[in-house]
Amino acid sequence: MIIAEVKNYMDSENSKHLHLSSMSNEPLRALIRDEIKNIVSSDSKKGPVRRRGSSRDEETSIRKFGSTRDEKAVELIRNEARKVAKEELLKYSQDKLNRRDFALHSGGAKIISKYTSKTYEQWPNEWYKKTLAYVTGKGITRGKPPVTAISHDTNVGQCWPLSGQEGQLAIFLDRKVFVTAVTYDHISKDIATDDVLSAPKDFEVWGIIDDGTVSKNDDNDEDFGVDLSDDFSPRMESTEDKCGRRDDDQYDDGLSHLNHLEIDTNGELHLGSSPRHLYLGKFTYDINGLPIQTFEVPDHILKYNKPIRAIIMKIISNWGKPEYTCLYRFRVHGDPALPTVSASDPKIK
Protein backbone atom coordinates (compact mmCIF):
# COMPACT_ATOMS: atom_id res chain seq x y z
CA MET A 1 0.00 0.00 0.00
CA ILE A 2 2.75 2.45 0.95
CA ILE A 3 4.85 1.56 -2.06
CA ALA A 4 1.84 1.90 -4.36
CA GLU A 5 1.00 5.36 -3.01
CA VAL A 6 4.58 6.56 -3.36
CA LYS A 7 4.75 5.14 -6.87
CA ASN A 8 1.52 6.87 -7.89
CA TYR A 9 2.79 10.12 -6.46
CA MET A 10 6.15 9.91 -8.17
CA ASP A 11 4.61 8.91 -11.49
CA SER A 12 2.30 11.90 -11.34
CA GLU A 13 5.30 14.16 -10.76
CA ASN A 14 7.29 12.49 -13.56
CA SER A 15 10.09 11.96 -11.08
CA LYS A 16 12.65 9.26 -11.63
CA HIS A 17 15.01 9.58 -8.71
CA LEU A 18 13.19 7.04 -6.48
CA HIS A 19 13.87 3.52 -7.68
CA LEU A 20 10.65 1.92 -6.45
CA SER A 21 11.17 -1.36 -8.22
CA SER A 22 14.18 -2.10 -6.04
CA MET A 23 12.36 -1.49 -2.75
CA SER A 24 12.01 -4.32 -0.28
CA ASN A 25 9.83 -4.67 2.79
CA GLU A 26 12.79 -4.81 5.17
CA PRO A 27 13.65 -1.08 5.03
CA LEU A 28 10.01 -0.29 5.73
CA ARG A 29 9.97 -2.69 8.66
CA ALA A 30 13.11 -1.01 10.01
CA LEU A 31 11.42 2.36 9.72
CA ILE A 32 8.32 1.08 11.52
CA ARG A 33 10.40 -0.54 14.26
CA ASP A 34 12.23 2.75 14.78
CA GLU A 35 8.94 4.62 14.92
CA ILE A 36 7.60 2.20 17.53
CA LYS A 37 10.70 2.82 19.64
CA ASN A 38 10.08 6.57 19.34
CA ILE A 39 6.46 6.24 20.48
CA VAL A 40 7.30 3.96 23.40
CA SER A 41 10.19 6.21 24.45
CA SER A 42 8.00 9.29 24.18
CA ASP A 43 5.21 7.66 26.19
CA SER A 44 7.59 6.65 28.97
CA LYS A 45 8.91 10.22 29.20
CA LYS A 46 5.41 11.75 29.08
CA GLY A 47 6.54 13.84 26.13
CA PRO A 48 5.49 14.30 22.51
CA VAL A 49 6.30 11.75 19.82
CA ARG A 50 9.44 12.69 17.94
CA ARG A 51 8.30 13.58 14.43
CA ARG A 52 11.68 13.94 12.75
CA GLY A 53 13.89 11.02 13.56
CA SER A 54 17.60 11.59 13.61
CA SER A 55 18.70 8.06 14.43
CA ARG A 56 21.13 6.38 12.11
CA ASP A 57 18.78 3.41 11.57
CA GLU A 58 15.92 5.63 10.49
CA GLU A 59 18.01 7.70 8.09
CA THR A 60 19.48 4.52 6.63
CA SER A 61 15.99 3.11 6.10
CA ILE A 62 14.84 6.27 4.35
CA ARG A 63 17.89 6.39 2.09
CA LYS A 64 17.12 2.85 0.97
CA PHE A 65 13.83 4.11 -0.37
CA GLY A 66 15.53 6.83 -2.41
CA SER A 67 16.76 10.37 -2.14
CA THR A 68 15.70 12.36 0.91
CA ARG A 69 15.46 15.41 -1.31
CA ASP A 70 11.87 14.54 -2.10
CA GLU A 71 10.29 15.72 1.15
CA LYS A 72 6.72 14.81 0.20
CA ALA A 73 7.51 11.21 -0.66
CA VAL A 74 9.56 10.73 2.50
CA GLU A 75 6.86 12.32 4.65
CA LEU A 76 4.26 10.04 3.06
CA ILE A 77 6.31 7.02 4.06
CA ARG A 78 6.79 8.41 7.57
CA ASN A 79 3.06 8.99 8.02
CA GLU A 80 2.19 5.48 6.89
CA ALA A 81 4.85 4.05 9.19
CA ARG A 82 3.43 5.98 12.14
CA LYS A 83 -0.06 4.71 11.32
CA VAL A 84 1.09 1.08 11.27
CA ALA A 85 3.16 1.61 14.42
CA LYS A 86 0.20 3.02 16.33
CA GLU A 87 -1.98 0.14 15.15
CA GLU A 88 0.56 -2.38 16.40
CA LEU A 89 0.87 -0.59 19.74
CA LEU A 90 -2.90 -0.51 20.06
CA LYS A 91 -3.16 -4.26 19.51
CA TYR A 92 -0.34 -4.79 22.01
CA SER A 93 -2.10 -2.70 24.64
CA GLN A 94 -5.52 -4.31 24.27
CA ASP A 95 -4.77 -7.04 26.77
CA LYS A 96 -2.75 -4.84 29.13
CA LEU A 97 -5.68 -3.71 31.26
CA ASN A 98 -4.42 -5.90 34.11
CA ARG A 99 -8.02 -7.00 34.66
CA ARG A 100 -9.20 -10.51 34.05
CA ASP A 101 -11.85 -11.01 31.38
CA PHE A 102 -14.46 -13.52 32.56
CA ALA A 103 -16.29 -13.28 29.23
CA LEU A 104 -13.35 -14.45 27.12
CA HIS A 105 -14.29 -17.34 24.85
CA SER A 106 -10.90 -19.00 25.02
CA GLY A 107 -11.14 -18.83 28.82
CA GLY A 108 -14.34 -20.86 28.91
CA ALA A 109 -17.12 -18.30 28.37
CA LYS A 110 -19.89 -19.19 25.92
CA ILE A 111 -22.55 -17.44 23.89
CA ILE A 112 -26.14 -18.10 24.99
CA SER A 113 -27.57 -18.21 21.50
CA LYS A 114 -31.20 -18.37 22.65
CA TYR A 115 -30.94 -14.92 24.23
CA THR A 116 -28.61 -13.35 21.66
CA SER A 117 -29.95 -11.28 18.76
CA LYS A 118 -29.81 -12.49 15.20
CA THR A 119 -26.69 -11.97 13.12
CA TYR A 120 -27.01 -9.44 10.30
CA GLU A 121 -27.65 -10.89 6.85
CA GLN A 122 -27.43 -9.13 3.50
CA TRP A 123 -29.89 -10.50 0.96
CA PRO A 124 -29.92 -9.97 -2.83
CA ASN A 125 -31.99 -7.06 -4.11
CA GLU A 126 -33.54 -8.76 -7.16
CA TRP A 127 -36.75 -10.65 -6.35
CA TYR A 128 -35.74 -13.81 -8.21
CA LYS A 129 -32.34 -13.93 -6.49
CA LYS A 130 -34.05 -13.30 -3.18
CA THR A 131 -36.46 -16.18 -3.83
CA LEU A 132 -33.59 -18.45 -4.79
CA ALA A 133 -31.71 -17.44 -1.66
CA TYR A 134 -34.76 -18.18 0.47
CA VAL A 135 -35.09 -21.67 -1.02
CA THR A 136 -31.42 -22.66 -1.28
CA GLY A 137 -29.71 -20.38 1.23
CA LYS A 138 -27.24 -19.29 -1.45
CA GLY A 139 -26.51 -15.65 -2.23
CA ILE A 140 -26.91 -14.50 1.37
CA THR A 141 -23.97 -12.66 2.92
CA ARG A 142 -23.83 -13.40 6.63
CA GLY A 143 -21.78 -11.66 9.27
CA LYS A 144 -19.43 -13.37 11.69
CA PRO A 145 -21.06 -15.26 14.59
CA PRO A 146 -21.60 -13.71 18.05
CA VAL A 147 -18.65 -15.61 19.53
CA THR A 148 -16.48 -13.10 17.64
CA ALA A 149 -17.48 -10.46 20.21
CA ILE A 150 -15.87 -12.39 23.08
CA SER A 151 -12.65 -13.32 21.29
CA HIS A 152 -9.13 -11.85 21.35
CA ASP A 153 -8.93 -10.76 17.71
CA THR A 154 -10.07 -7.16 17.20
CA ASN A 155 -8.49 -6.51 13.82
CA VAL A 156 -10.51 -4.62 11.21
CA GLY A 157 -13.61 -6.64 10.29
CA GLN A 158 -13.33 -9.08 13.21
CA CYS A 159 -16.66 -8.10 14.71
CA TRP A 160 -20.15 -9.51 15.16
CA PRO A 161 -22.85 -7.54 13.30
CA LEU A 162 -26.32 -7.71 14.81
CA SER A 163 -29.32 -6.59 12.80
CA GLY A 164 -30.46 -3.01 13.35
CA GLN A 165 -29.51 -0.49 16.02
CA GLU A 166 -30.88 -2.45 18.99
CA GLY A 167 -30.21 -5.93 20.25
CA GLN A 168 -28.37 -7.94 22.84
CA LEU A 169 -25.43 -10.23 23.45
CA ALA A 170 -25.91 -12.93 26.11
CA ILE A 171 -22.84 -14.57 27.63
CA PHE A 172 -22.43 -17.50 30.00
CA LEU A 173 -19.35 -16.51 32.01
CA ASP A 174 -16.53 -18.93 32.72
CA ARG A 175 -17.48 -18.88 36.42
CA LYS A 176 -19.61 -17.05 38.97
CA VAL A 177 -18.39 -13.47 39.34
CA PHE A 178 -19.09 -10.40 41.43
CA VAL A 179 -19.07 -8.04 38.44
CA THR A 180 -17.37 -4.69 39.08
CA ALA A 181 -16.79 -3.36 35.55
CA VAL A 182 -17.14 -4.08 31.84
CA THR A 183 -14.97 -3.05 28.90
CA TYR A 184 -15.89 -2.54 25.28
CA ASP A 185 -13.31 -2.50 22.46
CA HIS A 186 -14.00 -1.07 19.02
CA ILE A 187 -11.77 -0.42 16.05
CA SER A 188 -9.93 2.90 16.20
CA LYS A 189 -11.16 5.71 13.96
CA ASP A 190 -7.57 6.18 12.80
CA ILE A 191 -7.27 2.69 11.34
CA ALA A 192 -10.87 1.93 10.38
CA THR A 193 -11.37 1.18 6.70
CA ASP A 194 -15.07 2.01 7.00
CA ASP A 195 -16.99 4.49 9.11
CA VAL A 196 -17.40 3.78 12.82
CA LEU A 197 -21.09 4.62 12.90
CA SER A 198 -21.90 0.96 13.47
CA ALA A 199 -20.27 1.10 16.91
CA PRO A 200 -22.65 0.78 19.87
CA LYS A 201 -23.50 4.02 21.63
CA ASP A 202 -25.83 3.56 24.60
CA PHE A 203 -26.09 0.16 26.24
CA GLU A 204 -27.20 -1.47 29.47
CA VAL A 205 -25.60 -4.38 31.27
CA TRP A 206 -27.67 -6.96 33.11
CA GLY A 207 -26.46 -9.87 35.20
CA ILE A 208 -28.29 -13.12 35.89
CA ILE A 209 -27.83 -13.98 39.56
CA ASP A 210 -26.75 -17.50 40.46
CA ASP A 211 -26.42 -17.63 44.24
CA GLY A 212 -27.99 -21.06 44.68
CA THR A 213 -31.15 -19.70 46.32
CA VAL A 214 -33.58 -20.18 43.43
CA SER A 215 -35.71 -23.29 43.30
CA LYS A 216 -35.22 -25.71 40.45
CA ASN A 217 -38.98 -25.55 39.88
CA ASP A 218 -38.64 -21.91 38.84
CA ASP A 219 -38.25 -22.70 35.17
CA ASN A 220 -39.89 -19.68 33.59
CA ASP A 221 -37.72 -19.78 30.50
CA GLU A 222 -39.26 -16.67 28.98
CA ASP A 223 -37.81 -14.27 31.57
CA PHE A 224 -34.58 -16.22 32.14
CA GLY A 225 -35.84 -17.46 35.49
CA VAL A 226 -34.26 -20.87 35.02
CA ASP A 227 -31.83 -22.64 37.27
CA LEU A 228 -28.50 -21.98 35.62
CA SER A 229 -26.82 -25.08 36.95
CA ASP A 230 -29.56 -27.12 35.26
CA ASP A 231 -29.96 -25.06 32.10
CA PHE A 232 -26.24 -25.12 31.26
CA SER A 233 -25.49 -28.63 32.41
CA PRO A 234 -22.49 -30.30 30.74
CA ARG A 235 -24.94 -33.01 29.69
CA MET A 236 -26.46 -30.60 27.18
CA GLU A 237 -24.84 -29.53 23.93
CA SER A 238 -22.63 -26.59 24.85
CA THR A 239 -23.11 -23.19 23.27
CA GLU A 240 -19.46 -23.39 22.27
CA ASP A 241 -20.41 -26.34 20.07
CA LYS A 242 -23.32 -24.34 18.71
CA CYS A 243 -21.40 -21.14 18.07
CA GLY A 244 -17.69 -21.74 17.87
CA ARG A 245 -17.26 -25.02 16.06
CA ARG A 246 -19.66 -24.77 13.14
CA ASP A 247 -19.53 -22.91 9.89
CA ASP A 248 -21.74 -19.87 9.36
CA ASP A 249 -24.49 -21.78 7.52
CA GLN A 250 -24.98 -24.28 10.33
CA TYR A 251 -24.76 -21.54 12.94
CA ASP A 252 -27.44 -19.39 11.30
CA ASP A 253 -29.63 -22.43 10.61
CA GLY A 254 -29.41 -23.15 14.31
CA LEU A 255 -30.86 -19.70 15.04
CA SER A 256 -33.59 -19.87 12.40
CA HIS A 257 -36.23 -20.84 14.98
CA LEU A 258 -35.33 -17.80 17.11
CA ASN A 259 -36.58 -15.13 14.73
CA HIS A 260 -38.94 -13.93 17.48
CA LEU A 261 -35.87 -12.45 19.16
CA GLU A 262 -35.94 -9.64 16.63
CA ILE A 263 -39.47 -8.80 17.70
CA ASP A 264 -38.54 -8.97 21.36
CA THR A 265 -35.44 -6.77 21.15
CA ASN A 266 -37.29 -3.71 22.48
CA GLY A 267 -38.33 -5.64 25.57
CA GLU A 268 -35.06 -7.57 25.72
CA LEU A 269 -36.81 -10.77 26.81
CA HIS A 270 -38.45 -9.07 29.80
CA LEU A 271 -35.20 -8.14 31.51
CA GLY A 272 -35.97 -6.84 34.98
CA SER A 273 -39.10 -8.96 35.42
CA SER A 274 -37.35 -11.50 37.64
CA PRO A 275 -35.56 -10.97 40.98
CA ARG A 276 -32.64 -12.80 39.41
CA HIS A 277 -32.08 -10.00 36.91
CA LEU A 278 -29.49 -7.61 38.35
CA TYR A 279 -29.19 -4.23 36.64
CA LEU A 280 -25.51 -3.26 36.51
CA GLY A 281 -25.79 0.13 34.81
CA LYS A 282 -26.30 2.10 31.63
CA PHE A 283 -23.21 3.30 29.76
CA THR A 284 -22.21 5.22 26.64
CA TYR A 285 -19.36 4.27 24.34
CA ASP A 286 -17.69 7.37 22.85
CA ILE A 287 -16.36 6.85 19.31
CA ASN A 288 -14.28 10.01 19.72
CA GLY A 289 -12.51 8.59 22.75
CA LEU A 290 -10.02 5.77 23.13
CA PRO A 291 -10.87 2.54 21.27
CA ILE A 292 -10.86 0.59 24.56
CA GLN A 293 -13.20 2.00 27.20
CA THR A 294 -13.87 0.55 30.65
CA PHE A 295 -17.10 1.25 32.54
CA GLU A 296 -17.26 0.77 36.31
CA VAL A 297 -20.42 -0.51 37.96
CA PRO A 298 -21.80 2.37 40.09
CA ASP A 299 -21.16 2.16 43.83
CA HIS A 300 -24.86 2.21 44.73
CA ILE A 301 -25.30 -0.96 42.65
CA LEU A 302 -22.16 -2.63 43.97
CA LYS A 303 -23.67 -2.48 47.47
CA TYR A 304 -26.22 -5.07 46.34
CA ASN A 305 -23.83 -7.09 44.20
CA LYS A 306 -24.43 -10.83 43.98
CA PRO A 307 -22.74 -13.71 42.14
CA ILE A 308 -23.37 -13.47 38.40
CA ARG A 309 -23.05 -16.43 36.04
CA ALA A 310 -24.61 -14.99 32.88
CA ILE A 311 -24.52 -11.44 31.59
CA ILE A 312 -26.38 -9.56 28.88
CA MET A 313 -25.15 -6.52 26.99
CA LYS A 314 -28.33 -4.74 25.86
CA ILE A 315 -27.67 -2.39 22.93
CA ILE A 316 -30.01 0.60 23.02
CA SER A 317 -28.52 2.58 20.12
CA ASN A 318 -25.53 2.87 17.82
CA TRP A 319 -23.80 5.90 16.29
CA GLY A 320 -25.97 6.13 13.17
CA LYS A 321 -25.80 2.91 11.15
CA PRO A 322 -29.43 1.80 10.65
CA GLU A 323 -28.68 -1.58 9.03
CA TYR A 324 -26.51 -3.14 11.71
CA THR A 325 -24.44 -2.66 14.86
CA CYS A 326 -20.93 -4.16 15.07
CA LEU A 327 -19.49 -5.51 18.31
CA TYR A 328 -15.74 -6.08 18.35
CA ARG A 329 -15.10 -7.23 21.92
CA PHE A 330 -17.04 -7.11 25.16
CA ARG A 331 -15.27 -7.94 28.43
CA VAL A 332 -16.47 -8.55 31.96
CA HIS A 333 -14.34 -7.84 35.03
CA GLY A 334 -14.80 -8.56 38.70
CA ASP A 335 -13.96 -10.89 41.54
CA PRO A 336 -14.53 -14.65 41.39
CA ALA A 337 -17.32 -15.83 43.67
CA LEU A 338 -15.68 -18.33 45.99
CA PRO A 339 -17.80 -21.39 46.81
CA THR A 340 -19.33 -21.28 50.27
CA VAL A 341 -18.33 -24.18 52.51
CA SER A 342 -20.38 -25.37 55.45
CA ALA A 343 -18.64 -25.89 58.78
CA SER A 344 -20.11 -29.39 58.86
CA ASP A 345 -18.43 -30.30 55.60
CA PRO A 346 -16.47 -33.53 56.20
CA LYS A 347 -13.61 -32.10 54.15
CA ILE A 348 -13.00 -29.51 56.86
CA LYS A 349 -10.91 -30.86 59.67
Automatic annotation (TrEMBL):
GO terms for cellular component: meiotic nuclear membrane microtubule tethering complex. Residues 54-63, 232-247 have a biased composition (Basic and acidic residues). Its main location: membrane. Residues 108-337 form the SUN domain. Residues 219-230 have a biased composition (Acidic residues). This is SUN domain-containing protein. Transmembrane segments: none annotated.
